[in-house]
Write a structure and sequence with these properties.
The chain is about 5% helix and about 35% strand. By secondary structure, it is mostly beta strands. The strands form eight sheets. Strands 21, 22, 24, 25, 27, 29, 31, 33, 35, 36 and 38 form an eleven-stranded parallel sheet that branches. Strands 1, 2, 4, 5, 7, 9, 11, 13, 15 and 17 form a ten-stranded parallel sheet that branches. Strands 20-23-26-28-30-32-34-37 form an eight-stranded parallel sheet, with no helix packed on it.
Length: about 700
């Protein structure tokens, strides 16, 4: 609430919510449509009354319902809309703590840019009513709220704080809410369509439809209660004569749906380029959408966000061009081999988790000083984690820079290049605690020129026996060492490629890759390492599944202590690590020149989502994968050596000479040591042949000549 609105509310409280018996039982004047044009201050409603609309109303003032004097019955105000509409940005119901407001058969429309609210401190009963296009919440409720056959659609908020005003209903502390037959549709921002504050309770019965709300349908943290006894989605009419049904978007000729709410998990494969001329795609909670582009492009000239994802949804883009497309992500966004071009004022606003690999961001631009040309990571929802692996940013201009973080984490991994961008590559909002982790590999492949990979041409029948065998291969046969590029969706740094074809049970193959002369990394110029299938993974329980022949690729289940420590130190994984799941880890490395091991962690299945990508140092990837060196040949037994007794020096002769009589085991060197003379002197004095190589027992050797 603005300071001016807060001040007005204090005035209303001071004037109307007291219990002075002097309050007169008067009514404000009624406009031509049947509703008071303004009812505040001394002109507030101080009696029980019913208003019946005879036409649509543009409400230009506030309507306040006072508290009845002490001991009097509560003031009960009823508005029967007769199917009409009330519009106007200043329209606000201030309802006293001990009053009752009944709204029936009316549409309350905030007009997108205005603030239209019902502030209920007392009891609010709503039947057959539509609330739409209110800014910052259509109902700020601090009392008892009962909704029956109500539609809340396209309400929104321009602020981003978890636990802030719910866009449709903001349930104050210790309030009580009872819903019967309610539809919440496309309410965007803040804590969710309805945000429960401490002690608030919500009970839902009858039909209930939740569709296209982001980041949450119902934000109900610890200390609040949501009891859902609803029977399923609503049908027929809802609210003030609106349709409760939300039709699934029809497919366009290119294979992609028209704009609308995506409420069912699906995979869309493009057959041609798509022009997105409609509105926004809303991906609802718990929905997973996969787009296989086959090198085709989604393009649009619209300036607003084209995709909005709920907090528990996921969107995966593979091998697709994106021209002028913008994303507002609260969920999980993953993109592999995309080319994003010509986006104005941020390709991505990320408040969830977004990961990009093998991608190119080309000539995107910001037209205002506070925008970013490519992406902003924002931590309003305690997340905003964004990762770029093997990505090139080229020719992106304007605003604060290419990438910006507002208290969130951006990771740069593998081969990340910034070329000809302005004004800066990365920008960290000061004082917000954001960080850019630069883990780039200094020795990597060339910048990405074009990541889009067209599908391979079909082989003619009879081209080869291997092709024919692959075509008829059943789902349980081994994966042939001939990858289809569009199925190789994960890179292990710059040295490995994981191919995950769509098969049941899931399979995955790993290739060793290297650069070809054109600078691209393709398995065609690499070598096949190994493949595994889902039954092998499940049979491994927790531990090693497979190793490559050279011991530098390991596939195992469960997190190593090192990986678990890395994830535990990352805030975005705190909650996920508490959920029991099977982790499948692909580890490749270390490369001799970098000592780095590239790890990709999958969630539950070989065709599952990527839980995390981590580079570690050291190696090998798994100790079990290192083959033991061949055992040395058995040593040849040698006899225990027998050492001769040391040479005993002999006493000098009477003339001072020393004669040594050779004994068994004596050697010339040992004799020289015993007498502390040079071995050569003994050889010369005794004119020994062959440098004294042979001596024999009993031989007399002159060690020192006689004196004189």
């Amino acid at each position: 609430m603005s300071p001016l609105r807060s001040f007005a509310w204090l005035i209303v409280c001071a004037i109307f919510f007291g219990t002075s018996p002097a309050l007169a039982q008067t009514l404000p004047p009624v406009a031509a449509c049947g509703l008071p044009a303004e009812a505040e201050g001394e002109n507030s409603i101080k009696a029980s009354v019913t208003y019946t609309l005879t036409a649509d109303c543009e409400q230009t003032g506030e309507i306040a319902i006072a508290n009845a004097p002490a001991g009097d019955p509560k003031f009960e105000v009823t508005i029967n809309g007769g199917g009409h509409m009330i519009t106007g940005g200043t329209f606000v119901f201030f309802e006293g703590r001990f009053s009752i407001l009944n709204l029936n058969n009316v549409t309350i429309d905030g007009g997108d840019i205005e603030r239209t609210e019902v502030i209920s401190v007392g009891t609010l009963n709503v039947t057959d009513v539509t609330f739409t296009r209110a800014n910052s919440g259509s109902m700020l409720a601090s009392g008892q709220v009962n909704l029956n056959n109500v539609l809340l659609a396209y309400n929104f908020s321009t602020t981003n704080n978890l636990g802030g005003n719910g866009t449709a209903v903001h349930a104050g502390p210790n309030t009580t809410h009872a819903w019967n037959n309610v539809v919440l549709r496309n309410n965007i921002g803040n804590g969710g369509a309805i945000s429960l504050l401490a002690g608030a309770t919500l009970t839902t019965t009858g039909c209930l439809t939740l569709s296209g709300n982001a980041p949450y349908d119902v934000y109900a943290p610890a200390g609040t209660t949501w009891t859902d006894s609803s029977t399923g989605p609503c049908s027929g009419t809802i609210g003030n004569g609106d349709s409760s049904a939300i039709p699934a978007p029809a497919l366009m000729a290119c294979g992609f749906p028209e704009a609308g709410n995506l409420d069912v998990s699906a995979t869309y494969t493009l057959s041609a380029d798509c022009e997105l001329t409609g509105g926004t795609y809303y991906i609802s909670e718990d929905v997973s959408i996969r787009v296989i582009g086959k090198a085709h492009t989604l393009r649009s000239s619209r300036g607003s966000y084209h995709f909005r994802t709920a907090a528990t949804s996921s969107l995966r883009l593979e091998n697709v061009g994106l021209e002028g497309i913008r994303f507002f992500n609260w969920g999980q966004l993953a993109a592999e081999r995309i080319k994003a071009v010509n986006t104005v004022n941020s390709f991505l606003l990320n408040m969830g988790e977004a990961r990009f690999s093998n991608s190119l961001f080309l000539e995107n631009r910001a037209t205002s000083a506070g925008q970013r040309s490519v992406a902003l990571a924002y931590n309003a929802y305690q997340n905003g984690y964004t990762s770029f692996t093997d990505v090139t940013f080229r020719g992106n201009t304007g605003g604060l820079g290419v990438l910006a973080t507002f208290g969130a984490v951006i990771d740069l991994n593998g081969c990340v290049y910034f070329e000809d961008n302005s004004p800066v590559d990365t920008y960290i909002y000061p004082g917000r605690g954001g960080v850019v982790n630069d883990n780039r590999d200094p020795d990597c492949d060339s910048p990405i020129v074009d990541p889009l990979v067209p599908p391979p041409a079909r082989r003619r029948s009879g081209s080869s026996s291997a092709a024919r065998e692959s075509a008829i291969c059943n789902p349980h046969c081994a994966l042939p060492p001939v990858p289809v590029f569009e199925e190789c969706d994960l890179k292990l740094g710059a040295i490995g490629l994981i191919c995950r074809p769509r098969r049941q049970p899931p399979v995955a193959a790993v290739w060793r890759i290297r650069s070809n002369p054109e600078g691209e990394t393709l398995p065609a110029v690499g070598s096949f390492l190994l493949s595994v299938n889902q039954p092998q993974v499940e049979a491994a329980a927790e531990g090693l599944v497979a190793c490559s022949a050279d011991g530098r690729l390991a596939i195992y289940t469960g997190l190593s202590d090192e990986l678990r420590r890395v994830f535990e130190n990352s805030p975005q994984y705190d909650e996920e690590l508490r959920v029991p799941r099977r982790y499948i880890v692909f580890s490749k490395g270390p490369e001799p020149k970098e000592g780095k091991v590239h790890n990709i962690v999958l969630d539950n299945a070989l065709d599952g989502r990527v839980f995390g990508i981590v580079d570690t140092y050291g190696g090998p990837p798994a100790p079990e994968c290192v083959k033991a060196p061949p055992a040395p040949p058995a040593p040849v037994p040698t006899p225990t050596p027998v050492y001769a007794a040391p040479v005993q020096p002999q006493a000098p002769q009477p003339d001072g000479s020393i004669i040594h009589v050779v004994r068994e085991g004596d050697t010339l060197s040992a004799i020289a040591v015993a007498y502390r003379v040079r071995q050569l002197d003994i050889i010369v004095n005794n004119q020994l042949e062959h440098m004294g190589r042979w001596i024999y027992p009993g031989q007399e050797l002159l060690i020192r000549a006689a004196d004189g």
